[in-house]
């Protein structure tokens, strides 16, 4: 690793060191670094527990337990200056233990980690996946568990085992973490060494077979087909009653949108899930600050809008880019008996929302 000396336009080498020499501890330091900044492993991860020991009839603990952006459980095992000989077998055991975790158990594990209620845990998981209803997200399906190894050095028997696991469809990865010292500061570099194209010093080259499609992909495809059928029926109904979506083309996965609400980037959307159907004003101008100003402008007219539309669910969503103002019913596309009522709800509410928010948009200035 080199430090750029901009004043003299040259590179200054940082001094390679070891965690032992720097008195760095596995749990106290390396584990905490990853827990607080899981993005160092090169992807979006949600840490849901540290030192997880929720296994029946065993006192074993895995270092870090996480969820990836596809809903897969990720077992993260950390070692310091040397990977050791048995870490692969250890992690395989942990992954097998975790394979039986249900969605409810994952929520409970995360709530315990947060020291909060299950409702808060669900809210944070939904925010991580940018979804409104956790029922819409599959977690820990069948054999989708992943294993990440983190160490300063990997023995050949470990890298060989990891490649063998990958060859049989198990997503195992190795991350080399290297400590350096410069000007009294400790620097740390995380480098994914497996999988990578050329890693002759760490791996025994093997061809990686293409993974079979997982149950998750099949389940997602099935939901998409069911929703597509629902939307086609809704569009047919809209054509019969000359509704606002009569000319809509295509069958999206979970929502339909219609613009022209008076402010660019504001649309009226209709959304379906396994537990609700929702009509909403969706504010997404592409600029977070502008979105919040648009929302606040509408909120200043809250009494007038609710006199026209009834009680609204005002969601400024400060931790997200977008904003939402909505009404929902406990009707689901999964129940065919609900379809007609959903069609009528969407058609009537869409028309009412467009009229009310077009009026409310007048006078807004960027």
UniProtKB/TrEMBL annotation:
The UniProt entry, under Pfam families, shows: DUF4268 (PF14088)
Q: What is this protein called?
A: DUF4268 domain-containing protein
Q: Which InterPro entries match?
A: DUF4268 (IPR025364), tRNA_endonuc-like_dom_sf (IPR011856)
- Every copy of the DUF4268 domain together lies at 227-359
Q: One GO molecular-function annotation for this sequence?
A: nucleic acid binding
């Amino acid at each position: 690793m080199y430090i750029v000396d901009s004043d003299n336009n040259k590179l200054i080498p940082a001094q390679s060191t070891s965690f032992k020499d720097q008195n760095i501890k596995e749990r106290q330091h390396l584990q905490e670094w990853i827990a607080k900044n899981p993005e160092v492993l090169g992807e979006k991860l949600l840490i849901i527990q540290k030192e997880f020991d929720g296994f029946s009839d065993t006192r074993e603990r895995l270092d870090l337990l996480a969820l990836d952006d596809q809903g897969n459980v990720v077992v993260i095992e950390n070692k310091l200056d040397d990977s050791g000989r048995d870490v692969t077998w250890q992690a395989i055991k942990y992954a097998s233990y975790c394979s039986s975790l249900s969605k409810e158990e994952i929520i409970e594990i995360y709530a315990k980690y947060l020291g909060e209620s299950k409702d808060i845990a669900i809210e944070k998981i939904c925010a991580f996946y940018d979804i409104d209803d956790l029922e819409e997200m599959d977690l820990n399906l069948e054999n989708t568990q992943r294993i990440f190894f983190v160490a300063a050095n990997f023995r050949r028997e470990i890298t060989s085992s990891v490649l063998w696991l990958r060859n049989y469809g198990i997503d195992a990865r190795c991350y080399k973490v290297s400590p350096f010292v410069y000007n009294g500061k400790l620097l740390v570099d995380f480098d994914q060494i497996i999988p990578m194209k050329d890693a002759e010093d760490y791996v025994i080259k093997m061809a990686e077979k293409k993974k079979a499609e997982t149950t998750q992909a099949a389940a997602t495809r099935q939901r998409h087909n069911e929703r597509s059928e629902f939307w086609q029926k809704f569009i047919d109904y809209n054509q019969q009653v000359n509704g606002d979506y009569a000319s809509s083309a295509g069958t999206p996965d979970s929502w339909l949108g219609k613009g022209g609400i008076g402010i660019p980037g504001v649309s009226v959307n209709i959304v379906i899930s396994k537990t609700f159907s929702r009509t909403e004003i969706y504010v997404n101008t592409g600029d977070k600050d502008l979105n919040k100003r648009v929302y606040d402008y509408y909120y200043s007219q809250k009494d007038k809008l609710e006199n026209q539309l009834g009680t609204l669910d005002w969601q400024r969503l400060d931790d997200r880019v977008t904003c939402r103002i909505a009404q929902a019913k406990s009707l689901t596309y999964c129940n065919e008996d609900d379809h007609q009522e959903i069609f009528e709800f969407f058609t009537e509410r869409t028309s009412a929302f467009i009229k009310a928010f077009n009026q409310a948009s007048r006078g807004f200035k960027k």
